[in-house]
Amino acid sequence: VIARWPSFHGSSIGALAVSGRPSLRADFDPMLPVTPFIPAPYPYRCRLPGCGARCSLECAEALDAKIREEGPDTVAAFIAEPVIGASAGAVVPPPEYYGLVRETCDRHGVLFIADEVMTGMGRTGRWFGMEHWPGVRPDILTTGKGLTSGYVPGGAVMAGGRIVETVNAGGGFHHGFTYSHHPVVAAAGLAVMRYLERHDLVARAAVMGEHLMVRLRGLADLPAVGDVRGIGLMAAVEIVRDPASRQPYPASARMAQKIQAEALKRGAIVYASGGQVNGAGDLIMLGPPLVIEREQVDEAVQILGDAIAAVTRA
Ligand SMILES: Cc1ncc(COP(=O)(O)O)c(C=O)c1O
User: Fold this and answer.
1) How many domains in the chain?
2) Are 139 and 112 a contacting pair, CB within 8 Å?
3) What is the distance in A from the centroid of ligand 1 to the CA of 91?
4) In this structure, are 16 and 139 located in the same domain?
5) Each residue of 283-296: pLDDT tens digit?
6) Per-residue pLDDT tens over the stretch 88-138
7) Residue 25 lies in a domain
8) Is 180 a domain residue?
9) 153 CA from centroid of ligand 1 (Å)
């Protein structure tokens, strides 16, 4: 399986092996099967040759090169988060990216796995993040988190008929756990989906997401705010020491964690992440509930701005 760097797909050995997240791999590195990685699109810090102000999609072409390098017959799948989650902070790839990925996978007979654990279930303003790339369908889709809205732990894998039939013809998929296939999880998932539908919350995530992005862009005047990005109600602010050179604070400064603590003190829960710039780099992510009100978005962004100002001024 070819994966991208940075990325995160989970903490079990198989999922971690395809995750480009050094801090979380560190304790398990010797046990992880070797995975070929390609760079994930990350416009704010792209260093691929040819990728400048106008993205030339070297990151999509890197998939073709990597499949050829590995040998197409040895590559089963390519895995990607439609919008990168905590490992790079709500990075939205260029509009052409997934069309090229799909074409490349098809050309080489490689399956495309979309990891929608973070982007699925309405988070980005569509039921699934991949819907932002019309006409591009993954072969396998994973989802979790919003699937049960966190009321009970739940996750799911979906695949098209061709894959399911092939697996069944090969003797089926033996992957049971004591508590897998649990009816309570299925009931919670159904209840969440019905609630989302009844209250039109996916469309609401798109509308509130636009408002959130407008408000977050208002933080760009703060000297430590290097980039503001995201889609729907999945957003991130990248904190830098120097916006001109985009140089991050040293990891030891723990700026994201300090901002998170300051925001919590002031009444907002934000997600601190980072390490995407060779171990340094600070990201503050926002993933508010889909029922959030406009005024609450305003309040959260105001608090975040105050927290960033307080911590980076100190
Ligand atoms: C994009 C993505 N994929 C996979 C996972 C792993 O999900 P779980 O911890 O439920 O296995 C996460 C968790 O944060 C994630 O963000």
Assistant:
1) 2
2) yes
3) 16
4) yes
5) 999 999 999 999 99
6) 999 999 999 999 999 999 999 999 999 999 999 999 999 999 999 999 999
7) yes
8) no
9) 12
Statement to judge: residues 52 and 126 lie in one domain: yes
Tell me: do 37 and 137 sit in the same domain.
Answer: yes
Same domain, 12 and 136: yes
Q: Are residues 24 and 139 in the same domain?
A: yes
Is 152 contained in some domain? Answer: no
- Identify whether 273 is part of a domain: yes
Q: Which amino acid residue places its CA nearest to atom 13 of ligand 1? A: 10
For a mutational test of ligand 1's pocket, the pick from 87, 117, 143, 145, i.e. the residue with the most ligand atoms closer than 8 A to its C-beta, is: 117
Check if 118 has its Cβ closer than 6 Å to any atom of ligand 1.
yes
- In angstroms, the first-to-last Cα distance of the chain is 45
In sequence order, the 6+-apart residues with CB closer than 8 A to the CB of 212 are 230, 233, 235, 286, 288, 297, 301
Pocket of ligand 1 contains residue 249 by CB under 6 Å? no
DSSP state of 84: B
Nearest CA to ligand 1 atom 6: 10
Residue/partner pairs of 271-275 with CB below 8 Å, 24 or more apart: 271/86, 273/86, 273/87, 273/89, 274/248, 275/21, 275/22, 275/23, 275/87, 275/251
Confidence of residue 47 (pLDDT cuts 50, 70, 90): confident
Q: Supply 15's token pair.
A: 């999922």
Nearest to 8 by CA among 83, 104, 120: 83
Please identify, by atom number, the ligand 1 atom nearest to the C-alpha of residue 145.
10
Give the range of the structural domain holding residue 124, as residue numbers without chain letter. 3-143
- The answer, yes or no, to whether any atom of ligand 1 lies below 6 A from the CB of 113, is no
> Residue of the nearest CA to atom 4 in ligand 1?
9
In SS3 terms, 224-238 reads as CEEEEEEECCEEEEE
Q: Which residue's structure tokens are 């990685």?
A: 37
